């Protein structure tokens, strides 16, 4: 099938590349000439394992292309996916739908023949109805239907999630739309991937409800970790015992410095706002947002406690600044709260991250970047593990301690055994243990 992807951000690019790997002919559209030029040269603007190789292969096979010409790309498409950004709107926490509605207006004037307009962006309930209204107002003669097809991609594992999904959610209004969407996702149906067909509003809500639940799960285990520290329990044992219950499951039960990234922060805020606007407040999610914000400040206090509440003039090494490993994404990362707080308290902060420097140099302007953990730790009076990159999981702790001025470690991801760390010479603290 002929597919057009509007937007070449994380969701649009990953989805477009994966659809082309299914065998569809995909054209990805963006407004930024420099971005399209880079993609046409084979340069991937984001870090996602396996994406560059898959993109290169499908471009070479003639199934994937990039263009600035929305009109031409839409005019030849069987389905057009809207995959533009929906950032948090300043002032009220709602999702900003400006880019979605602008795309709908442009699409309206480019349609030729029957086309399914598919919203891939994360959008509040009612957005697809508004997309349909806008297109019909702009082009009353257009022959089209709308579909809601939210994404469930984890950064760092997006290709695996797309190719072997837990489920695919498709909101539709009629059988004609269903037939098109079924053809698009036929390769997954052949693998017996669950495909949930539902109405537009339910599809929109599924995305928000799922992300909010996972954010709640993270926040819950962080609250339990706080209590574990008070009563002498081990959060890792508690989480393991909880996770063995099939009704709960072990995923997202890892205590740490709080959630971040491109989805959970903005989606929890948007869902809370939707509830408020419909006089049905979701008080659990409102609390999750507040607790997660406070969690980052708690981690700063933990580091300060390790340093006897004095970091002024001290060198502090930070391992990891992206919100999770296997990505270069720093949106709402705990590091953006913790590192500036340390700098503001007078610390000399040295940072190492396998992929975070590209964004980090702008977002964290007052730090020094190192090439490896031992360089960052040389002469330091404290080391903080913020992101659990594989590169940080098997460090030579004895060597690490030996290069430090004062071997203190705040392991905020619980990747080291407390006994081993102390035997290596560290004054060591972790989370919930």
Structure description:
The chain has about 425 residues and is an alpha/beta fold. The chain has two domains: about 1-200, NAD(P)-binding Rossmann-like Domain (Rossmann fold), CATH 3.40.50.720; about 200-433, 3-Layer(aba) Sandwich (Rossmann fold). The chain has 18 helices and 14 strands. α1 (about 10-20) crosses α3 (about 50-60), α5 (about 100-110) packs parallel to α6 and α10 (about 200-230) packs across α12 (about 265-275). The longest helix has about 30 residues, at about 200-230. It is elongated and about 70 Å long. The N and C termini lie far apart (about 55 Å).
Task: List the SSEs and their pairings.
Layout: E1 2-6, H1 10-22, E2 25-29, H2 33-40, H3 51-60, E3 64-67, H4 70-75, E4 79-82, H5 98-108, E5 115-119, H6 127-138, E6 144-148, H7 158-163, E7 168-171, H8 175-184, H9 186-190, E8 195-198, H10 200-231, H11 235-243, H12 264-277, H13 283-306, E9 315-319, H14 335-344, E10 348-352, H15 357-363, E11 368-369, H16 373-377, E12 382-385, H17 397-403, E13 408-411, H18 418-423, E14 427-429
Parallel strand pairs: 1-2, 1-4, 2-3, 4-5, 5-6, 7-8, 9-10, 9-12, 10-11, 12-13, 13-14
Structural key phrases:
elongated, 2 domains, 18 helices, six-stranded parallel β-sheet, 14 strands, alpha/beta, Rossmann fold, 433 residues, single chain
Structural class: alpha/beta
Mean pLDDT: 96
The strand line-up of the biggest sheet is: 3-2-1-4-5-6
Distance between the termini: 53 Å
CATH architecture of the largest domain: 3-Layer(aba) Sandwich
**Named CATH topology of the largest domain:** Rossmann fold
- Determine the fraction of residues in helical runs and give it as a percent range: 40-55%
Low-confidence stretches: none
Please tally the β strands and state the result: 14
Integer tally of domains: 2
Total helices: the number is: 18
CATH class label of the largest domain? Alpha Beta
- Largest sheet data: 6 strands, parallel
CATH superfamily (homologous) name of the largest domain: NAD(P)-binding Rossmann-like Domain
Strand content: 5-15%
CA radius of gyration is 23 Å
The 3D shape can be described as elongated
């Amino acid at each position: 099938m002929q597919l057009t992807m509007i937007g070449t951000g994380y969701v649009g690019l990953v989805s477009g590349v994966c659809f082309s790997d299914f065998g569809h002919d995909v054209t990805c559209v963006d407004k930024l000439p420099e971005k399209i030029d880079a993609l046409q040269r084979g340069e991937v603007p984001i870090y996602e394992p396996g994406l560059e190789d898959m993109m290169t292969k499908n471009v070479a096979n003639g199934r994937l292309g990039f263009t600035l010409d929305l009109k031409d790309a839409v005019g030849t498409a069987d389905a057009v996916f809207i995959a533009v950004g929906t950032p948090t709107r300043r002032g009220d926490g709602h999702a900003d739908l400006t880019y979605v509605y602008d795309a709908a207006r442009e699409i309206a004037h480019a349609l030729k023949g029957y086309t399914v307009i598919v919203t891939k962006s994360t959008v509040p309930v009612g957005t697809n109805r508004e997309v349909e209204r806008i297109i019909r107002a702009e082009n009353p003669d257009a022959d089209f239907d709308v579909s809601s097809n939210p994404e469930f991609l984890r950064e760092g594992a997006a290709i695996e999630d797309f190719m072997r999904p837990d489920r695919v959610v498709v909101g539709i209004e009629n059988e004609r739309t269903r037939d098109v969407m079924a053809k698009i996702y036929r390769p997954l149906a052949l693998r017996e991937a669950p495909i949930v067909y539902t109405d537009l509003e339910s599809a929109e809500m599924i995305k928000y409800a799922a992300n909010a639940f996972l954010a709640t799960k993270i926040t819950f285990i962080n609250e339990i970790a706080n209590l574990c520290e008070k009563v002498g329990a081990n959060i890792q044992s508690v989480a393991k015992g909880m996770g063995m219950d099939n009704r709960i499951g072990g995923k997202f039960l890892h205590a740490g410095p709080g959630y971040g990234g491109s989805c959970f922060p903005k989606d929890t805020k948007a869902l809370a706002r939707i509830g408020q606007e419909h006089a049905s407040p979701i008080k659990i999610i409102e609390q999750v947002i507040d607790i997660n914000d406070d969690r980052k400040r708690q981690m700063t206090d933990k580091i300060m406690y390790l340093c006897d509440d004095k970091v002024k003039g001290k060198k502090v090494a930070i391992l990891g600044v992206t919100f999770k490993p296997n990505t270069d994404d720093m949106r709402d990362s705990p590091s953006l709260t913790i590192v500036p707080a340390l700098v503001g308290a007078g610390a000399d902060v040295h940072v190492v991250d396998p992929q975070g420097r590209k964004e980090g140099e702008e977002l964290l302007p007052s730090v020094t970047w190192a090439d490896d953990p031992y360089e960052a730790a040389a002469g330091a009076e404290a080391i903080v593990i913020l992101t659990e990159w594989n590169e940080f999981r098997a460090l030579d702790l004895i060597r690490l301690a030996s290069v430090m001025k004062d071997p203190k470690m705040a392991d905020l991801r619980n990747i080291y055994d407390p006994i081993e760390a102390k035997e290596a010479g560290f004054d060591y603290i972790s989370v919930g243990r």
